[in-house]
Amino acid sequence: MPYKLYFISLGCAKNVVNCEQMMALCRDAGHILAESAEGADVAVINTCGFLASASEEAIENILEMGKLKEAGRLKKILVTGCMTQRYAEDVPTELPEVDGILGTGSYKDIVSAVEDVMGEKNPRYFGDIDAPVDEFGRVLTTPGHYAYLRIAEGCDNWCAFCIIPRLRGKYRSRSMENVLAEARELANRGVKELIVIAQDITRYGTDWDGEHHLADLLEALCRLDFHWIRLHYLYPDQMDDRLIGVIAREPKILNYLDIPLQHCSDEILRKMNRRGDKAYIEDLLDKLREKIPHLVLRTSLITGLPGEGEAEFEELCQFLWDQRMLRAGVFPYSPEDGTPAAKMDRVDTEEAVRRAELVVDIQSRIMDEWNEEMQGEVLEVLCEGFDGQAMAYTGRSWAESPDIDGKIYFTARGEVETGMFVPVRVTGTMDGELTGELVEEDE
Fold this sequence. Notes:
The chain is α/β, with parallel strands linked by helices. About 35% of the residues lie in helices and about 25% in strands. It has helices spanning about 15-30, 50-70, 80-85, 90-95, 110-120, 165-170, 175-190, 205-210, 215-220, 240-250, 265-270, 280-290, 310-325, 350-375; strands spanning about 5-10, 30-35, 40-45, 75-80, 100, 125, 145-150, 150-155, 170-175, 195, 230, 255-260, 295-305, 325-330, 380-385, 390-395, 410, 420-430, 435-440.
């Protein structure tokens, strides 16, 4: 019989794709995708377990669903994803609300797990996390004008602070045939902004023959009917001249690159098993800016890493000022059990948080300067709807990626449809975000 299933996706965009695949498998098996946990048969919580804070968020969601279950307004709870992979033994014992768990190698088993829990069984599915990437359909949960395209699974970088290879397995590229088939389907659905994702997209294809194939893939994607193609998570040590050349010359590929650097100190980079040194990073960023006009760079930075004294922290702050990194996700270091860095000496958590706040302040000032430079500019903006509270339309330019960056607020004399690309003249700022007005045809 069909069951009513409610899905919650936590964490990164890659988790969103996994959740969309599970939803498609359940839909195709005849189950009903509910819009609320109230009255559902099963709530499926797809978790992140990258950091302790992500696990805490997952636990909060599980406890919230547990209250509904206790009140008789939800029957069963299934938990999937990175947290269950990481804490396979702890989740069932510490969270008795949970009726079944699936690891990151078992998203394909979601239908069986649903049937198990509804049959009063307690499934524990943990498939091979190094197996080839499963190919499933998806139920898109993003707005219709943009979607994620995951091109690989797992990671071979083994950064000393990161648990991901233990949770997601070795690096496995999806075949170009399968990636392009999915991309064509997304284009046929009307997706206008394609966001290419993986833990590390720059290694795409290296597990086949040792060669880099991301440039080949991007050239093929640019021949499809997308208006924008955005790239997320390009590791600096894997960016060769051919890839940079393709990004520079293909007009559909946005001049927005997400390159996780984590730090700039040579000694810290060495301890963290990051390839390349500060000089290499600076040369790469110089080359990118030379080849790609109006480039917006996003990065990830960690404060309080093992080995970071005051001198290394000051070096990081100066690096951020010098490089004018427009976007940055800044995180205080969190020692994660099972990683080499967790055994190293480090600054205390309170100091790491203080340093992160200082870096965020620097980043905010860099953003304010950039916002001033944008005044009077006309930007191509993808409209994402109307904000009743702000009494303005919202959208994004090439410089804003969904969910992680800000929005542009703009006014218009007439109606603007969601998913349209429109010219917006920047006229001001609001809480650090750009504001503007639609450039009308008669102007």
